[in-house]
Design a protein that fits this description.
alpha/beta; Maf protein; binds inosinic acid
Length: 200
C-alpha cells in the first residue's frame, strides 16, 4: 500500500502523522506537495469531515489517502469548539484568540475555567483508490488550564492537561505526547487494521 497520500495542509498535524507512520514502512506523500486542493469541510462530525478529505485526495491522486479531522471538545460548552476548533483561532490562526474565547464562554456560563473537563478527538479516515473508506477514532480526556503553558506542540496544546498528568501537552516532549494523544490512539487502531489486513 504505497505511497499513502496524507490529506492535510496543517503543518503541525502533517509532522505528527509523519512521525507516527515512520517505522512501520509506509511511504507517505502529502496532499499539499502534490498540489491537491483542500476541499471544504462541510460535514457535521469529525468522521464526515475526515471522509470528505480522504475521498477527495484518493480520487484526485488515484492512491490510498489518509485524512485526519480532530479538535478539542469542552464538556461545559456542549463539546465546542469541536469540529470548529481551527475556526475558533480566527483567520490569523492565533490560538491566543481561541483560548480567550473558551475562557470567556465558560465564564459566561458561570463555569470555573480552571480544571474544566475537555477531550481531544481524532478521526482518521482511509480511502482506497476504489473509493472505499474506513474510519478509526482516538480520544484523550483531560482538563483545561489558564493561562496557557508551554511552547511545544501546536494548537490547543498549551491549555490541555491529559488525565493523570501535570504538564500541558505543550510542556511535554513530542515523544511523550505521542504515547497518549488522541492522534496516537487513532493511529494505533489504524495500524492494527493494517496488520490484520496483511495477515489475511
Ligand atoms: P482540522 O484541520 O479541521 O482537523 O483542525 C483541527 C483543529 O484542532 C486545529 O485547530 C488544531 O489546532 C486542533 N487540534 C487538533 N489536534 C490537536 C492537538 O493534538 N493539539 C492541539 N490542537 C489540536
Amino acid at each position: 500500500m504505497s505511497p499513502l497520500v496524507v490529506a492535510t495542509h496543517n503543518e503541525g498535524k502533517a509532522r505528527e502523522i509523519g512521525e507516527l507512520l515512520a517505522g512501520i514502512g509506509i511511504k507517505v506523500i502529502s496532499a499539499a506537495s502534490l498540489g491537491l486542493p483542500e476541499p471544504e469541510e462541510t460535514g457535521a462530525t469529525f468522521a464526515e469531515n475526515a471522509t470528505i478529505k480522504s475521498e477527495s485526495a484518493a480520487k484526485l491522486s488515484g492512491n490510498y489517502a489518509l485524512a485526519d479531522d480532530s479538535g478539542l471538545c469542552v464538556t461545559g460548552l456542549d463539546d465546542a469548539p469541536g469540529i470548529y476548533s481551527a475556526r475558533w483561532a480566527g483567520p490569523e490562526k492565533d490560538f491566543a484568540v481561541a483560548f480567550d474565547r473558551i475562557h470567556n464562554a465558560l465564564l459566561a456560563k458561570n463555569i470555573e475555567p480552571e480544571g474544566v473537563a475537555a477531550h481531544f478527538i481524532c478521526l482518521l479516515s482511509l480511502t482506497s483508490p476504489e473509493g472505499i473508506t474506513r474510519s478509526f477514532e482516538g480520544r484523550v480526556d483531560g482538563t483545561l488550564t489558564f493561562p496557557p503553558r508551554g511552547a511545544k506542540g501546536f494548537g490547543y496544546d498549551p491549555i490541555f492537561i491529559p488525565a493523570g498528568q501535570r504538564m500541558t501537552f505543550a510542556e511535554m516532549e513530542p515523544e511523550v505526547k505521542q504515547v497518549m494523544s488522541h492522534r496516537a490512539r487513532a493511529f494505533a487502531a489504524f495500524t492494527a487494521y493494517l496488520a490484520r489486513k496483511e495477515a489475511s
